[in-house]
Design brief:
With 98 residues, the chain is an alpha+beta fold. The protein is built from four helices and four strands; from the N terminus they run αβαβαββα. The relative contact order is 0.25. It is globular.
Length: 98
């Protein structure tokens, strides 16, 4: 969890996608996140975390939905939502914290 602490303490917004591979619908979010990362460039970080491989972290954050998106900035959770989101929505949300 030390790496997670370093990740979320960034000066720029960090969009995290907690996902599970067992869910067949995770193919489309890969495209969505690729578009979000391309649009934001180095102004924000976009990270995918497999909640099955990071069970302790997922449990600590009470991640239940698949996917669950969270935006952090300077260690503070700014926004959180479970369920599919389109690229434009995610881009607009992250841009609020630039």
């Amino acid at each position: 969890m030390a790496k997670f602490g370093e990740l979320i303490n960034a000066e720029i917004p960090v969009l995290i996608d907690f996902f599970s591979h067992w869910d067949e619908s995770t193919e489309m979010p890969n495209d969505v996140l690729r578009d979000v990362a391309a649009a934001l460039g180095d102004r924000a970080k976009v990270v995918k975390i497999d909640k099955d491989k990071n069970e302790a972290l997922a449990n600590a954050l009470r991640i239940k939905g698949n996917p669950t998106y969270i935006i952090y900035k300077k260690g503070e959770m700014k926004w959180r939502q479970s369920g599919e989101q389109d690229a434009n929505t995610l881009i607009n949300l992250v841009e609020q914290y630039l």
